[in-house]
User: Which sequence fits this backbone?
């Protein structure tokens, strides 16, 4: 170490806004204002922390990160000390070892040591650091521990074990700094201090599910994950939360082929490591045993289980028959906002290029005058705006994690967040935003037309960038890829717009249209089950992919089992156009090949050439070649279609 | 030469009067060592509560991964084990088990030990995956009818197994052996350095029985 320090000392550096610091003999230059803790992490030196959190301000209450710094009379907390030029930090000397052993002995004084029954056991910082830095023994008799209440329900989602708490304040600060809701407090003093809610009220927040992840020990745990599994039993699948279009990164943790929890996966550009409760606790939905498991072919009143190959052959034959008899325009094609980009890309090509029908959509409502400008503002770019206007309550209801980003912009960057009613006039919005220069306008997609009018009015005040909250995990992808009646891929205007989703279903119900090819499950159709039932019963041919039994699976003439989100690979596009991968973590409910393969085979039988194998990755390459915006976005980047972005 | 023959015959004549050491297995069986590592036993406390808390440390320690544990939360009014957590399912794949005893070593509550039984052969593979009902020690404290008493005693509870194969019955010789082992030498709370009166989470029920 010392040899490195002596030989590796860099010569005098010019003032580049960086400071030179030595940690355990390792010399490095870090930007001014960097904390010693972060500098150590950069140097690859581990400093144990409990109260410090990458997303929160330092408080230095746990004293676990104390390090020796030359010329300081006492040990300093690395998490709250700013690196200075020429600072010499030591973490590997006996003094620091002794401090850590002492701190851990203190933290474990009244800790119940019930790791075998603790949900956190196996991924607990207290456990890990005790093994790594602890003294190995306690001088405190186990019989004299002070006991607190165990298993206190704080809400329907969160359980608090007051004994296990080490008083790091992370949960209190989470509510102060991240959500601004201030629901958890520290009560009492000294050894009796405990985390609790004021007046024992239940937690109200929409973001409680982050507490167990913020907690470094097992004090705050999920009630839905209580004693469900051990962390080492879980199979992690990096994926994207399927609950809304915001695209929060998650780990879908499964055991025994069932999803047991969603854990956050930090992506500073999207979720900033926070999830909402609606998304986090929706995992149970994917464990249902009610699934479509076999391909079915129906003719008149006969229904029989068939092989996939036969189902695809029948689908191709029947669609061709309809097209020959009544014309290709009598076939409607419905995508879904719950499908992957690869599936939607193939479906759009199949519809417009192979079948040759203009009637393509992925939802029911008409989308007139859609433009790429309404999706232009990025999620992380919200922090760059000085004024943020939210039209109505819908955006934050649809994508709850947006609220946390708005609060961050407000708290850290001093932005003004103005929440207007969804029908606030353009003039009102302009008055509210007066004095602003960089305006971010956030609206829901059901309120698009009005938001466009407001944006025009705000344009007189300052520069306006818009973010429109789409519906469904991949609602944005469906629009980008042209699953709309009036625009093609990349929002290219079409000479002859086709019918929208509602018109297709009504056409089928009234008999003016004959065939339907649909990719399911389609959340947009759930509210219109009556119209859907009339349509699919009247239609001469319904080729449908679906995952769950329902109207579609009951009446489809050719039914092909679909794959749920965690059963297939692919990519989905979030509300700001970020293309993110999803991966297969659960075994599929049926032996049917994935949708991309089935669609490719179907297209091949209907005369398409050169579509490749249909493997999701191969389709993804095809998609990237075809769509320049998706080619540029790659994996994790944003697909942008505005003129400036393309230029 | 004659001397050697005489010596050999003398030994034979001497042994003619003693009992043969050959045991007519399976009609007759010899007791195994108390430290024998045979089929696992899940133990109970004196008050009948299960020792196992479903912590899965046995499954984590198992080098072959033959143990499956699914934990659940105790109903405080009718607890199955002391504390918050119990094992709802506990299965051991005996075909895969190598009887190393790491599970017993890892167990924080002395809930699992390896018992004297060694006859694990079966005609059906699925029956070699033994469930909690088969592994669990029966408890003489239960009232008649609450739970059928095991025909042979601890570690050989065949509850729910009779209908699988009526032929599977532990032999009478085993009954005596297992009863001796488990009621006299099996660990009790308080033995093995586990303090009984400590109100830890792991054993609050154990204190009440004293």
Assistant:
């Amino acid at each position: 170490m010392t040899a490195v320090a002596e030989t590796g000392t860099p010569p005098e550096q010019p003032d580049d806004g960086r400071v030179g610091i030595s940690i355990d003999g390792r010399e490095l230059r870090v930007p001014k204002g960097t904390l010693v803790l972060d500098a150590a992490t950069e140097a690859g030196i581990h400093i144990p922390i409990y109260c410090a959190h990458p997303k929160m301000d330092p408080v230095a209450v746990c004293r676990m990160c104390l390090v020796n710094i030359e010329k300081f009379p006492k040990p300093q907390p690395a998490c709250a000390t700013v690196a200075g030029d020429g600072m010499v930090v030591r973490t590997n000397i006996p003094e620091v070892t002794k401090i850590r052993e002492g701190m851990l002995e203190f933290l474990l004084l009244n800790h119940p040591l019930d790791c075998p029954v603790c949900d956190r056991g196996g991924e607990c910082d207290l456990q890990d650091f005790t093994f790594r830095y602890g003294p190995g023994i306690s001088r405190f008799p186990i019989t004299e521990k002070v006991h607190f209440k165990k298993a206190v329900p704080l809400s329907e989602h969160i359980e608090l074990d007051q004994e296990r708490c080490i008083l790091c304040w992370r949960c209190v600060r989470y509510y102060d700094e991240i959500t601004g809701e201030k629901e958890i407090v520290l009560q009492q003093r000294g050894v009796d201090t405990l985390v609790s809610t004021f007046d024992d009220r239940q937690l109200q927040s929409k973001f409680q599910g982050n507490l167990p992840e913020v907690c470094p020990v097992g004090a705050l745990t999920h009630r839905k994950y209580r004693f469900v599994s051990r962390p080492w039993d879980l199979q992690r699948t990096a994926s994207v939360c399927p609950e809304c279009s915001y695209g929060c990164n998650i780990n879908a943790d499964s055991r025994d082929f069932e999803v047991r929890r969603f854990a956050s996966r930090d992506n500073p550009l999207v979720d900033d490591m926070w999830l909402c409760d609606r998304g986090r606790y929706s995992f149970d939905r994917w464990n249902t045993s009610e699934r479509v498991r076999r391909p079915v072919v129906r003719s008149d009143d006969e229904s029989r289980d068939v092989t996939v190959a036969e189902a695809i052959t029948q689908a191709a034959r029947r669609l061709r028959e309809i097209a020959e008899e009544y014309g290709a325009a009598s076939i409607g094609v419905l995508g879904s906002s719950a499908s992957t980009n690869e599936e939607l890309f193939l479906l759009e090509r199949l519809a417009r290029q192979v079948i040759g029908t203009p009637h393509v959509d992925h939802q029911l409502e008409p989308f007139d005058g859609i433009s790429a400008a309404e999706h232009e503002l990025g999620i992380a770019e919200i922090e760059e705006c000085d004024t943020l206007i939210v039209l109505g309550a819908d955006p934050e209801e649809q994508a709850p994690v947006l609220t946390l980003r708005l609060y961050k912009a407000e708290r850290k960057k001093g932005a003004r967040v103005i929440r207007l009613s969804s029908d606030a006039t353009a003039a009102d919005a302009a008055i509210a935003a007066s004095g602003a220069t960089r305006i971010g306008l956030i609206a829901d997609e059901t309120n698009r037309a009005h938001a466009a009018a407001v944006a025009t009015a705000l344009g007189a005040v300052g520069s306006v960038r818009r973010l429109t909250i789409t519906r469904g995990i991949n609602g944005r992808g469906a629009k980008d890829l042209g699953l709309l009646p009036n625009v093609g891929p990349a929002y290219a205007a079409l000479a002859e717009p086709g019918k929208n989703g509602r018109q297709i279903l009504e056409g089928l119900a009234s008999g003016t249209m004959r065939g339907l090819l649909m990719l399911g499950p389609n959340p947009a159709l759930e509210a219109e089950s009556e119209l859907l039932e009339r349509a699919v019963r009247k239609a001469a041919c319904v080729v449908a992919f679906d995952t769950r039994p329902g109207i579609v699976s009951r009446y489809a003439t050719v039914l092909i089992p679909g794959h749920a989100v965690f059963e297939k690979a692919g990519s989905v596009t979030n509300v700001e156009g970020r293309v993110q991968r999803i991966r297969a973590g659960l075994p599929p409910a049926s032996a049917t090949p994935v949708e991309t393969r089935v669609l490719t085979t179907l297209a091949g039988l209907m005369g398409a050439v050169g579509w490749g194998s249909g493997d999701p990755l191969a389709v993804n390459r095809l998609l990237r070649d075809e769509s320049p915006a998706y080619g540029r976005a790659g994996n994790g980047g944003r697909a942008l279609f505005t003129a400036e972005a393309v230029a | 030469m004659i001397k050697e023959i005489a010596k050999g015959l003398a030994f034979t004549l001497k042994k003619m009067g003693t009992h043969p050491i050959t045991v007519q297995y399976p009609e007759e069986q010899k007791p195994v060592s108390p430290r024998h590592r045979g089929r696992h036993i899940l133990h109970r406390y004196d008050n009948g509560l299960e020792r196992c808390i479903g912590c899965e440390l046995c499954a984590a320690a198992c080098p072959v991964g033959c143990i499956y544990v699914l934990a659940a939360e105790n109903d405080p009014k009718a607890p199955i084990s002391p504390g918050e957590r119990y094992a709802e399912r506990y299965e051991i794949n005996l075909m895969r088990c190598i009887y190393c005893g790491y599970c017993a070593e890892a167990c924080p509550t002395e809930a699992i030990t390896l018992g004297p039984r060694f006859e694990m052969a079966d005609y059906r593979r699925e029956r070699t995956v033994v469930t909690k009902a088969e592994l669990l020690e029966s408890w003489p404290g239960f009232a008649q009818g609450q739970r059928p008493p095991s025909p042979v005693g601890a570690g050989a509870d065949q509850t729910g197994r009779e209908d699988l194969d009526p032929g599977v019955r532990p032999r009478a010789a085993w009954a005596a052996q297992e009863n001796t082992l488990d009621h006299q030498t099996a660990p009790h709370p308080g033995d093995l350095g586990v303090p009984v009166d400590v109100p830890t989470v792991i054993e609050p029920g154990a204190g009440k029985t004293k």
The domain at 296-363+475-646 of chain A is CATH 3.40.50.740 (Rossmann fold). The first helix of chain A runs from residue 2 to 8. The radius of gyration of chain A is 28 Å. Chain A has four domains: 14-92, 114-128+142-287, 296-363+475-646, 372-469.
